[in-house]
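Record format v2
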Amino acid sequence: MTIMKRMLLLLFFLASAAFVSGQELDFSLLKTLAVQKDGRKKPLDTVANETIQRITGKVFVKDPDTGRKLEAIELLLSMWMQTRDWLKAPVIYVGHQPLKVQLGLPVEQKYFSYEQLRAPALDAILQRVAKKSDGQQKPQLTRDEREASAVAERMRFLGDVLGLESLAIVPHSSDEKGQWEPVPKSGPIKERVDALRAAFVQRDPAALLTASRELEAALRVLGPKVYPGREKLAREVHYNSFHPFRKAEYLYGLAFVLLLATWPMRSRAGYWVAVAVFAAGVAVHGYGFYLRILISGRPPITNMYESVIWVSFGAALFAIVLEAIYRPRVYLAAVAPIATVMLVLADMFPAVMDPNIGPLVPVLRDNFWLTVHVPAVTLGYSAFAVAMALGHVALAYYVFKPEAHETIHRLEHFIYRAMQVGVLLLAAGTILGGIWAHYAWGRFWGWDPKETWALISLLSYVIPLHGRLVGWLHGFGLSVASVICFLTVLMAWYGVNFILGKGLHAYGFGTGGTPYVAVFIALELGIAGAAMCRKRKL
Amino acid sequence: MLLFQYSNRRRLASRLLSFDPVARLWHGAEPTVTTFRRTGKFLGSLSLAVALLTIVAAVLTVATFYESRTSTQAVTMQVYRSWWFNVLLGVLGLNLALAAALRWPWKHHQIGFVVTHGGLILILGGCSAAFHFGTEGMIGLRVGEPPSNVVQLEDRALIAMTPEGGQTFKETLRVDRCGVHPKTMALPGGLRVTLDEFCPNVATETVVREGGAEWNPAVQVCWQSKTTEQDLHQWLSAESPQIVNVAFVVASDAAQLAQITNAPPAGAVKEVRLVVVLKKDRLDVPVVGNVDKYLAVPGTEITARIQNYWPDFRMNDKHEIVSASEEPNNPVALVLLKRGESAERWFVFGNPEMQPMLRERKGTPIEVQMQLLVPLGRSQLTLVARLGSAGLYFTAQTKDGLKSGPLAIGQTMETGWMDAQLTVERFLTNAVMAEQVVRLPEDAEQSQSALRVTVHGDGAPRGEWLLFGKPILLHSGGKPMHLAFAWDSMRLPFTVALEDFVVERDEGSQSIAGWTSKVRFTDAATGEEKRADVWMNHPAVFKSYKFSQASWNPQDLKYTVLQVKKDPLWVIVLTWGGSGLTILGIGLMFYGRRWV
């Protein structure tokens, strides 16, 4: 054996030894343990992400004692196996200052323990909330009351995963929809969990791996027909860590930057790289949807989060298709920032747009129309979003480069085309909704706010399209309309559920985000106004 | 396109539509024809279309915001079903039709536009036809009850019945902005009723006044409390002798008066006790000394824990729960119940009029009864009237001991219940109580509708209130008869029975996943029978009647309400056909140039 070889061998040993001693615990198998929670079976990883994010408002949390950064799964396992007293650990997020004052908590602190928060003062506020919410579809709560409810919710989420008796991980023996049970007080499952706990506490990677494997196998045998397949669980864990929509967001953003950077040079190479990046974004975006459909087993547009993701996908898809047909550069450049912004918003406000996959509300269950009516309407929104994006570009030209007649003229043609697509899709979607309502509820049209606003936004686009025929409106008017009319889409989409809060489409109701929408509306009106002023001066 | 090859027909139609025949008839009446044509052109013009669309969009915008501030009911009556809104839609329909018609003969590129407009007209027509020609009602069914064929309709009716319940007369009423129709109707037995007014919001209230023949004491008191924030005026009488902890009793003579004022009823328990009952099993412990202890309910797996206790519960100025004193004047406890995985937190009250209030629940319900037993006589205020006398007395158990004496009008007393004070406002010795109908403002809660009618033929003509669903007794030719203002109903030509009602829940949780009514239709005439499931978005159809799941009661899982609907076939053809044409037309307009 040559010295060289020996050296290599030694190096290998050293490396592997260092590898073993510094090895983190491997939770990948535990992540795929199935749990029955909130009406469906999901991997422990999903439970961990959902719970930790809801309690702490963050993805990673520092260990309260050591300051070590903990992954959600590790934190959840510690809570579940109670390796420390989590009721005393400051992990529950309270951000609202006046609430902290009312509860007599130190204002500079952000995280509090369950026991600190369990005070009569909080109870008193919650009781007020309960009184106000009694029988109300949308109670008028003050900011303090909303924040207090959110805190109580976070406390409840902590309580839901605390202790071995909390999570239902023992499968029902035969019934697909049967109730799962938590770890029994004694018996083989309990022994395996004890072994797992010991390995976890001692931070022994090998023992943890063995214990995880044995626990998983023991659980799986208890309900072999009921326990979800490994592939299915692994897929959801993959979805959790892959973050397809965030990747799409980055790709669209990157494509936009590339397009802007190469715009002055009219570089062909730059353009094609940007197109490729954008196309990759669309592909990842679509892949995310594909995963979500497989995981939830249903069409993917059932709440605000999913609709935002879907509309941005539709807009990006339209952009890339139209770009492929006309190659004007402008489709991608206009739509990329809008798709990025939508995805950022969906990612940023989990409290307003809940990204978790839950069971369907009864009204949406098992129905063919959901796969036709909703996608058609929301794709209509996408087309209008494209028109709006192009409208911005056109108005920017009017303001900064009004002499570029040919470009402006082309842009207006594209806006017109996008509006047509939108009108066709929204009209078809709304009418299909009417037919469904006629079949299912016995009436074609009932002036439900969602229906009415779909009609209003349809009318708001039909008006400029007709006005253009009369000659009251030309290219510039159409550009302004594409921006202004999108506000009615926003109202039909967001406003009906979050501002009006009445009607049959109640399953999508929520609160929050209103200031952002108000800012957006003001901005859009401002842009349109500025362009109109500028146009008048010319 | 075959249609466009018949040029003769085209020319003929073109003449008809451009009013040429009219012009020939009117020999020389040229100006009128021009006006006529101009009006037609205006009504079918694009400018009018844009104006109308803008107005409709604006009206709808305002309407939806109005709806979110008031109610769906209000906006339906005041906008969507109002004459002016329907006129607006009518003009829009006319504009749609004329816009297409006036462009005859149509050119190839106009096909899309014509098809779209045609489709929209069909939809508009279909919707308004469904409103006027369709049948719509509700049928309530219960598991185990005999099959039913009575459908409650959306209209109201005036119904006459014999005391045995047999219907002898029915007239459907129409209520609109101008009032109720028809205005007058003849009932069997020679009675005649005129309908004077329809009041959508009324309520009944008890009016107490002096003037009865017999001695019947009644005291009007005024309650004041920070918690309720407004004064409450209430009557205490022999009919309603107790409000919270204030009692009203009558002493038959001086001796009994002395007895009551000197020794109020003694309490059954010495201290405040928590009682938890599950069927035969019972936990009964004093509250003081047991706060924050786990207490097992004997014979069950339930543990109870008093997490918090307020002997003298009330809200302070900041709306926080506090205990005003250590005296058990208004005791409230927060009790945590646990059974296995299930846990519940309840507020339990010492005031016997208050049911325990569920604070939160995890897992399946733990069905126990809970109560705080409070020493009686404590903090009790008793008002005493003496038979045949106009004097009023009181006796009060306060923390300073027993107090009693005469009570004057206008005198204010501590009630001992929370911070409530009570002022005696009036004392009537010969009170008469009567129900009276009062009109309420339009937005009043908890109101009901009523008809104001005049009855002719039963003695002298007299006015009566007909409260919705509350029959009145009349006499026609000496025979009693009930007259009611109620929902109109109709009978189906077959019967429906509810065989089962199934509620599905999400796996492993209490949240509801769906509900299904399993129904059986039977046609006695033909012997035809059909079983069907009715659930959300999945109606069942029998003999062209459609049954959809409308509502159900989470408290009573044996009961379901189905919506019954029957549209004439041509209405369905109209709407669905119109829908198809509209979508096709828009598609043709935007993308069809290549093919036509």
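Chain B has four domains: 2-133+571-594, 136-149+490-567, 215-267+378-429, 273-373.
The CA atoms of residues 32 and 524 of chain B lie 63 Å apart.
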